[in-house]
């Protein structure tokens, strides 16, 4: 007999859970603004952008920003750019660029034209800095970092003017050229805008425009030894790209007057308007890039794509589908204030998506041999099982069945009360998609552990929903003893036991959940799982959702999430 061993669920990409089916919710404030701008003719076509700094992997918070920026462009017939804000070569890396591109694509978004880089505007930004100097609006300052901090003042006290503030334009041009040509060491001077040291907004107190960094840049090599600050670069990059709605998180609201000051004083080709929205914070999770990097660098987790991390790469390796993340980002909404979202809501979105889309399979995590004493030794039948209870497009599975099978050790007891609806000596249970069996006895080893159960098939009960009149107490999963897949599983749980590990005053490393990963070896599953497709998440019936790990050398399944939903929506 041959059994169809094509990988089960190989057609999951035929997703009929209409991901574009936007829930009917009222438009959020950015949608309202854009709708208005289009209707009034102010912005015939919107241009947004997602501007990551390539200094780490993207996480679930970035997914919110991606879904928002690309989503708005999609909704309103506009375009969205992907631009790396690569102004700090010290912390950036090509690895992060590649990972970010992969993640945005995986989420299902396409950017306008090529991937863009802030670094490709370095010459223009430099020329604009020179323009400010020529207008008498920027100067080279040699205060040390400590001195500059003292001069800056505080939230309640005005700052003081730098002694270098009144240099002549000629002197500043000469000094800036020296900076540019590498005559000065890192940290010895900066170029600052000349605005107002008494401004109540600290960002306006002569902010830094350029710093010296004698670093090789991943895009521009050694062309530059001065680099623009984020504040000087960001708004101008948007202006160069003709971004119409420059969307960022709330902490940049106080920077807006500075961005507007640049636009006002420089001959930029367009005038983007900045809007701020509340960032996504999740409880039981850290989304600070610095902390994520520390978890990775100090090997508390298995790389940036460890399935316990809230990184997009981690969520993917865990078996989460991009549709679930997009749905989640839509569910949480977009507001003008920060809040903390319950991680159970993310888990709910993941589970809901998988319930609708994950092909079904049977696996046994703690195998216990069952010998069916009245079943012929040389016989093998093929049982048929649905790919999914409501999805005809997911292939039917063929399951070999023979005299020896495995059930989960937890699904058998010698004796039990009525609440236990599984296999008990003298009682019956249905093997899902196969026969009803009745247990007669069990075999134990010298230590008294149950190593085998002897049972009988009840004739005429084959099939999943037979009208055979026999009503066993429960239904359990099983795996054929001869033809099956053997694998390891990694049972993942939340990485932190504490509700707010990201809170500033906490030692987040001490809050790591010691049982966030439990490994099991020698698990068995139906034969089709031997060829499980990477990127497909299965429902292992009665156990949870699992996907094939991309990194392990031996076949390993990661538990994406259990079956039980704890979210009270
Ligand atoms: P940092 O700038 O400190 O390195 P970051 O998290 O801001 O970290 P960026 O690469 O600058 O990282 O982020 C890219 C975009 O993603 C920004 O527009 C940022 O506002 C947005 N973003 C980052 N974190 C979140 C979050 N938790 N919720 C929503 N948007 C976020
Ligand atoms: Mg940032």
How would you summarize this macromolecular structure in one to three sentences?
This protein is α/β, with parallel strands linked by helices and 569 residues long. Helix content is 24%, strand content 23%. The protein binds adenosine-5'-triphosphate and magnesium ion.
Describe the structure.
Among the domains are: 217 residues, HUPs (Rossmann fold, 3-Layer(aba) Sandwich), CATH 3.40.50.620; 108 residues, Glutamyl-tRNA Synthetase, Domain 3 (Glutamyl-tRNA Synthetase, domain 3, Alpha-Beta Complex). Helices cover 24% and strands 23% of the residues. The chain has twelve helices and 29 strands. The strands form eight sheets. A seven-stranded mixed beta sheet has the order 12-27-28-29-25-26-13. The chain has a seven-stranded mixed beta sheet with strand order 23-20-21-22-14-17-24, with no helix packed on it. Helix 7 crosses helix 8 and helix 11 crosses helix 12. The longest helix is centred in the first third of the chain and has 16 residues. Bound molecules: adenosine-5'-triphosphate and magnesium ion (MG). The site of adenosine-5'-triphosphate has 14 residues, from helix 2 and strand 8.
